[in-house]
Amino acid sequence: MSERKRILTGDRPTGKLHLGHYVGSLQKRVELQEKYDTILIIADLHMLTTKPNREAIEQITENARGMVLDYLAAGIDPEKVSIYLQSAIPEVYELNLIFEMLVTVNRLNRVPSLKDMARAANISDEEMPLGLLGYPVLQAADILLPRAHLVPVGKDNESHVEVTREIARRFNHLYGEVFPVPDCLVGDVPTLVGTDGQAKMSKSIGNCIYLSDDEAAVNKKVKSMYTDPNRVSADVPGTVEGNPVFIYHDAFNPDKAEVEDFKQRYREGKVGDVDVKQSLAKAINNLLAPMRERYAHYAADTGFVDQVILDGTETMRSYARETMQEVRKAMGFAGSWNRLRRSAEKRAKKQG
Ligand code: ATP
Ligand code: MG
């Protein structure tokens, strides 16, 4: 195993990545890829927790390609980072089952995001799939399979990593030290609001600016962004706190002096929403411009991202095999199997 500490994180292949994914987690992955041995998961099994239908499964390939292009566009270096397809690692199903024995249903019922996910997917309490309740358990298997130390995720995922920590401790206590207890790292903006002012930018709500949006799309979305609804004209003093336009300025405009100036004039009723939004659109386009270039560069090389995923999956397979050997040894499974095999061999020998 390498000297460097390891990161594991990723996303469900449900579509394009947006600015929320970027500030919640992706930005940190890019920053830390030199310092940590970084593994990114395309969590297609997690997608099944709310979308087990065939159409969703058929879209995995295309969505995975798009997601990996978004990663590379955002600055993930394919030479340094392993990106793998979760469903192609048999060991994760195995470790998930073992971990299911180490957590209670009550504990999982207290994970707040699972209810939110069920609601977003129109799943009632009665229809709650066992797999959705077990979402954080499967995530624990993802994180602990390569024995990761750090998990950069958005705020809604923090409670899942807490479950991972508890499972790691419980396993180590029962069977001996196999797993590190990983830390959670929440991004610079723990939960990015949507362009419509709703608490979370989310595909299912449709309030997103995508990393792959072109300049015109960004301009249009920013222009119609939710802002202080009480401000009917530019000379009315406006509210900056909690205003999505200013939350985005803080997140995406590197010119802090300009942002402070806008805030002051906004509060005094001395600047129009149009000016503030135009400057925001420019800042977001400046952030996305190099991403669009890298996206086009990698997308032009047909088969490249597919190769990246195949290579990453091979790397992950070797980590997974190694860890499961340790797990079986620690739990004593290897012992019972060997005893059975030895006695059967003895019998075979006796019979000649
Ligand atoms: P969407 O609702 O748009 O499909 P998601 O929450 O389903 O997004 P996931 O694949 O579950 O996306 O999560 C990927 C990562 O991105 C997680 O770490 C999650 O916390 C983070 N994330 C997603 N949306 C946001 C957001 N609006 N702000 C901050 N982080 C986010
Ligand atoms: Mg998603």
Brief descriptors of the model:
352 residues; mainly alpha; Rossmann fold; Tyrosyl-Transfer RNA Synthetase; 2 domains; 3-stranded parallel sheet; two-stranded parallel sheet; 7% strand; elongated; binds adenosine-5'-triphosphate; binds magnesium ion
CATH class of the largest domain: Alpha Beta
Q: Alpha-carbon distance between the termini?
A: 44 Å
Structural class: mainly alpha
- Low-confidence runs: none
In the CATH hierarchy, the third-tier topology of the largest domain is known as Rossmann fold
Secondary-structure arrangement, i.e. CATH architecture of the largest domain: 3-Layer(aba) Sandwich
Q: What are the distinct ligands in this entry?
A: adenosine-5'-triphosphate, magnesium ion
CATH homologous superfamily grouping of the largest domain:
HUPs
Per DSSP, what share of the residues sits in E-state strands of 2 or more residues? 5-15%
H/E element sequence: EHEHHHEHHHHHEHEHHHHHH
Brief characterization of the structure:
By secondary structure, this protein is mostly helical. The chain has 16 helices and 5 strands. It is elongated and about 100 Å long.
Structure description:
By secondary structure, the protein is mainly alpha-helical. The chain folds into two domains: 6-193 and 302-341, Rossmann fold, CATH 3.40.50.620; 215-296, Tyrosyl-Transfer RNA Synthetase (Orthogonal Bundle). The protein is built from 16 helices and five strands. The chain has helices at 19-32, 44-47, 54-58, 60-74, 90-100, 105-109, 112-120, 130-133, 135-144, 158-175, 215-223, 244-252, 256-268, 273-300, 304-331, 333-350, and strands at 6-11, 37-42, 82-85, 150-153, 183-186. The strands form two sheets. Strands 1-2-3 form a three-stranded parallel beta sheet. Strands 4-5 form a two-stranded parallel ribbon. Helix 1 (19-32) links the parallel strand 1 and strand 2 (37-42). Helix 5 (90-100) packs across helix 9 and helix 11 (215-223) runs antiparallel to helix 14 (273-300). The model has no long low-confidence stretch (mean pLDDT 97). Bound molecules: adenosine-5'-triphosphate and magnesium ion. Adenosine-5'-triphosphate is lined by residues 11-12, 14, 20-21, 23-25, 153-154, 156-157, 191-192, 200-204.
